[in-house]
């Protein structure tokens, strides 16, 4: 015996209430990405990054130090709560731009804010020329301090050039003392 219209309508309403993803125009729920604390590594200075990002950052920091540049991190991994507070401050006009909670790679332990000053400083210029060699790249045009670890999508420079496409400084062969 077929259901009358009222029963079909009630059944459809019940299905939509119990399974909201099936209702017309419903957006699929985003899966929350959670970085377990056991995957985090604390950097010198106290900030944390995901284990692979931290290892790459430490290699990059060592390379920078060899050229007289110090990379100081002022923000790394953030909890959802920390990101929410930063976002709320931004929305109230009380803080710098911040991504909506769940949309920041700081929450995944992949983003790092480095003290660089502006784009004319030696620290920024070193990062721009060398960060891609370590899997990092600048992802927010208005934030010269924000760098993200994205090794799969960060292009390596052409041979003999840096990340900006500039020729690498040539290394002159060491001269050996000739015996007389």
TrEMBL record:
D-alanyl-D-alanine carboxypeptidase-like core domain location: 47-151
Source domain of life: Bacteria
InterPro entries linked: DD-CPase-like (IPR052179), VanY-like_core_dom (IPR003709), Zn_M74/Hedgehog-like (IPR009045)
Alphabetized SUPFAM superfamilies for the sequence: Hedgehog/DD-peptidase
Gene3D superfamilies to which the protein is assigned, alphabetical: 3.30.1380.10
Keywords, ordered alphabetically: Carboxypeptidase, Hydrolase, Protease, Signal
GO molecular function annotations of the record: carboxypeptidase activity
Region (Disordered): 148-180
Signal peptide: 1-25
Entry protein name: D-alanyl-D-alanine carboxypeptidase
Organism: Archangium minus
